[in-house]
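Quick start: what a row looks like.
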Amino acid sequence: MTRVSRIAPALAAFAAFSGSSLAAQSGADVARSYREAHEPEIVRDFAELLSFPNRAYTPEIVRAAEYIRDELLEVGVAAELLRIEGASPLVYGELMVPGATRTLGIYVHYDGQAVDPSNWTNAPFDPTLYTAAIPAGGQRIPLPQDGQAVDPEWRLYARSAGDDKAPIAAILPVLRSFRESGVQPTSNLIFFFDGEEEAGSRNLTQYMEENRERLDPIDIWLFFDGPAHASGRPQITFGARGSGSMEVTVYGATRNLHSGHYGNWAPDTGNVLAHLLASMKDDDGRVLVEGWYDSIDPVGDEERAALAAMPDYDGELKRELGLVRTEGEPESLAERLMVPALNVRGITSGNTGSLARNVIPNQAVASLGLRLVRGNDPRHMSQLVVNHIERQGFHVVRDDPDMATRLRYPRIAKVTGGGGSRAARTTMSDPFAQSILGAASAAADRAFGPGSLVVAPGMGGTLPLTPFTELLGKPAIIVPTANHDNNQHAPDENLRIANLWYAIDLYAALLTMPLTVF
């Protein structure tokens, strides 16, 4: 059934949904039965959602927001678009359940990273189905038709397939199955779908402040985002790292110079930059910026216990990624996510390959990415990097140097950017979080087998948790469902269909947790 043919009964369905009684069959059973009966349709609906371009602040993202709003209306959610001038719309929805004594906030972002179509196997907003991952020999196939069996190992390729439209594609059939079967959620539900997460969520706080009365009743926030554990097992995480970015430009002559005429005499900007970057890290990956590790909040007993209980999967992951050694060995990946990181995101100095020229570039540029942990202040960490650059003998400026500056200082570095977002982590002993953990564990057991859920104290990526934990003062945990190899932020982003099915199982379990849990 198409979106247009479903829209007419939306408001009537909402009224019937709100007044229905809890069915004897569990919500998880209802959602799974619905999914098994409608698998081709669910895949096609997901593909339709993925076809909407979704870069923040573009006119196209408004169409994506309107589509999501209309889909929520059709499954019984009182949905609307919240607007701030110059911002991407925020899709807001409410589903209030008579007699419910708790309220869950559900955060998803529907915007996506920028795309360079020339790097994709298929057009990034032309969702394309494959029999398996492309590197594993997957073959392109048409979207399934009604009555056709759907292989859970199929993969759907498109921008935001794994980050972060998949949760929306899973929430909708769960709510549709509940509405059609007379099942009610056991919590009030507030949906808060961000259209700017990949651009820093810079208007999120204003949206929250302007709608504070609607958000205050929420007991806990669930962030439906992120990948499964690298082993493929489902996981739940209690925090996320903060982030920041900086760009460093070093200067040589005022113009590019012929390398034959000026080589061995004019400053080699690529080499100057390489030495500067090498001074920031040792061969084992330890950041050498003075004070880098001083502001880390100590890891508590519950986090240490969770780290110890996580699967030892680094060996398998190294083989998958073709790595012999990793930074920080013998510490595991999970342990390394608990300390701040400084990474070189990109370097530019002249050209390579067929475009290489016999010149000494007049400047070289590096983009630095900072990943921060609890206790780190983004501006302070950025300043530590600036201080380090100055200690290497550079005069630091914020704008391109004029001639007087060039003739005064032998080494000049322009540093731009800085700031960013702080890390957040919810205590694992929080009673609301413990209840979510119980429901997630049951769903993981059902989909992957007993004891399959991985409990992680933190996630390596960054999400805007701090406005929810600090401004609203509520716990927030991350409930990931995407396959770990989904290529998020990269070309050929994809979602394994089995992970979409798991998301449906998981969300159904979370939305129908027993009332006695909290």
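That is the whole record. The chain is about 35% helix and 20% strand. The first strand starts at residue 78 and ends at 82.
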